[in-house]
Structures are given as structure tokens and as C-alpha cells.
Fold this sequence. Notes:
The protein is an alpha+beta fold. The chain is 33% helix and 24% strand. The chain has helices spanning 20-29, 50-53, 80-90, 110-120, 141-150, 182-190, 201-218, and strands at residues 14-15, 34-38, 44-49, 74-75, 94-98, 104-109, 128-134, 155-161, 170-176, 194-199. Strands 8-9-7-10 form a four-stranded antiparallel β-sheet. Strands 1-2-3 form a three-stranded mixed β-sheet. The chain has a three-stranded mixed β-sheet with strand order 4-5-6. Helix 3 (80-90) runs antiparallel to helix 4. The longest helix is centred in the last third of the chain and has 18 residues, at 201-218.
Amino acid sequence: MLVKEILNTEISPLRLTDTVATALMKIELLHTTKFCVIDESGKIAGMAALEKLIEVIDENSQLSEIELEEPLFVPQEQHLFEASRVMLAKELYLMPVADNEMIFQGMIKKRNVLTALGDVFNLSTFGSVIAVELSQVDFTLSDLVRIIEMEGAKILGVAVQQPRAENPSYRISFKLNLEDSSVVSAGLKRFGYTVISEANSEVLEHNFSDRADELIRYLDI
């Protein structure tokens, strides 16, 4: 899924001719800490940051008269995964979107990104989830996919958790179309794989809202 598929064109950016008071009001209204500013040609000039705006003595000053932070944006052809990574790294609730000439095209909101990620990973689709742990040496998806499909399951989504200091192994979670993943789990174990968790449809139905809440908190929405 690309950024342009969840583009919001209803939120207008600030302009260099807008006042600090206008910027503060907009930032407060949208519950954010930084907001996009464009110049007279529609090009992204920078970001108005709350921490700098509140230091301005005269709120009637225009944004062209104060220091803006560096422009932040993602291309409209950018993949959703990369856009979400940038939003997380920059701690932005609203991410500006621009074309190749840095001309403002619209914005994407974190909540829309979350919804889109749910669609990509089929989070709301009825089924089951199974998680497998692999050492870095043994990491390969092709064999896992072969075993899962051999047991009659279709893979609706895959998520890979990178090794960390506290856990040096890969953790791969598969969303399956089966209501009961026990057959797949047994098949993986027969081939020597370590299944660390599995949940059938009944369990997932009760846990989806909790998992969504956890993801929202992770994205700091």
C-alpha cells in the first residue's frame, strides 16, 4: 500500500504569511507538536514547532520572521511501511506528503496509517495466528511457508521481529485463514521448529481490541 492511497487533502498547511497565533491555534486544534509550512509556490518550507512558537513574544509575527525546523515529508509514492517508520522516528502525528519537487500534496495521519497497516496484515480477518522462533543462522521463510501450506493453510499476513540483545532470535508471526492452527503447529514441530505461541479464532476475537490498543500506544497516538 502506498502513501497516496491514504492521503488526506482536507487538512490545509500553514503558510509563511500566517501568524504565530494562527500556527499555535492550528497545532492545538490538531493535537500535534509540529506542523507543515509552505511558501507562496506551495513548496514545503519547513515545520513550525510548538516549542519554538511559544517562545515568540509577538504572536502577530509572521512565520516567515521566525526560525522553522527542517522540512519533513514523505513522497506520495512511498510505501506505507517506510512512511510509518519515518513518522515513528520523527514522532509526528501528521506527516506532510510532497511530490518530487517538494510541492505539498496533503498529509497522512497516524490513525489512518494504523488502519492501513491493519488492512495490510489482515488484522480484522477471521483466522488464527501462530508465532515461530528461529535462530539467526536458521532464518529462512521459504521452508516455513512450504510446511504451513502443506498442512492446508493459507497465509494472510507475515510479520518478522528482528533479533535483539535480550532475545537474539527471529520471531515470525503468521496470520492464517484457519480457525484452528493446531494442525499447522503440529506440522512445524514435526520439522523441529519452535512454536512460541498460537491463538485460534475464539481467542483472537477477544484479543484484537487489546492488540490494537497496544499498537496505538506504541505509535504514540
